[in-house]
Amino acid sequence: MIQKNKIFGGKNGGVLIYNSGEGLLVENDIYCNALAGVWIKTESNPILRRNKIYNGKEGGVCIFNSGRGLLEENDIFNNAFTGVLISSGSRPVLRKNRIFGGKAAGIEVTNGGGGAIEDNEVYDNDFDGISLATGVTTTVKGEPVVATGNMRWSPCIQNFKPSPDNKEYGNKITLNVAERLGKCLFTISKENTYPMADFYRCLTCDVTASGAICENCIRNCHKDHVVRFHRRDR
Ligand SMILES: [Zn+2]
Ligand SMILES: [Zn+2]
After folding, report:
1. What residue ranges define each of the domains in the chain, with the CATH number in brackets?
2. How far is CA 27 from CA 3, 45, 95, in A?
3. Of 85, 38, 91, 50, whose CA–CA distance to 67 is shortest?
């Protein structure tokens, strides 16, 4: 049990839980660390409750390599990357957290991640609130939601309902701004992070289909070319 500590100014992550690690982190202040505030990796399954994880130079909580864990009632804010990143087969439970003021998305699920995302408040982040990559599965009160991509900026937009039990508001969705301006989304990418978006392939330009292009480039550089939706991801 790690309780009521201040963990700050580290040159790596604040707390690293790995190799089936467990434990209980309660009411800690974890801030100004060089990498993620909390790493949960390699089948670890900790409980994080009522911590404040903020002002990190990377993400707030990064859950990789089949990580699990229960994150409940934490405040995760003002981090330089994504508030909570769920990747590579991880299946955590996120419940009643407040995730706000981040420089990227609030919650991102990518690369075969999933889990349950319930009753969180996700607001005032620079990118999207909750972003799901193509193919990830999360559950919302037990109902599986499979993300297929092509949801927000296409005619399918009406079919995408953000999970009703999470509150998402005030997220800047920089992508929408860029799209209105017609700029390539690369122009709003940052040094090490890139917003989750729908990517396409241009069959006219690239016979090997190895590259991916954004929606704005379809309308400009690849106007009237043959393009195909590839996937929504980072
Ligand atoms: Zn582009
Ligand atoms: Zn082209």
Report:
1. 2-173 (2.160.20.10)
2. 6, 18, 16
3. 91
Both tokens of residue 73?
């009632």
Say how many Å lie between the CA of residue 172 and the centre of ligand 1: 19
Q: Is the pLDDT of residue 142 over 60?
A: no
pLDDT band at 160 (very low <50, low <70, confident <90, very high): very low
User: What's the gap in Å between 83 CA and the centre of ligand 1?
Assistant: 25
Q: What share of the chain is helix, strand, coil (3-state, %, to 5)?
A: 10, 35, 55
> pTM for the complete prediction?
0.84
- Cα of 88 vs centre of ligand 2, distance in Å, is 31
Give the span between the Cα atoms of 65 and 44, in whole angstroms. Answer: 9
Which residues, listed in sequence order, are joined to residue 63 by a DSSP beta bridge? 40, 86
- State residue 143's pLDDT score: 57
Higher pLDDT, 52 or 171: 52
- 84 forms beta bridges with 61, 107
| Start-to-end CA span in the chain (Å) | 34
3-state secondary structure of 188: helix
123's tokens: 């607001």
Torsion 214-218-219-221 (CA) sign = positive
Q: How many CB atoms within 10 Å of residue 144?
A: 10
Q: How far is the CA of 200 from the centre of ligand 1 (A)?
A: 10
Cα of 194 from ligand 1 centre, angstroms:
12
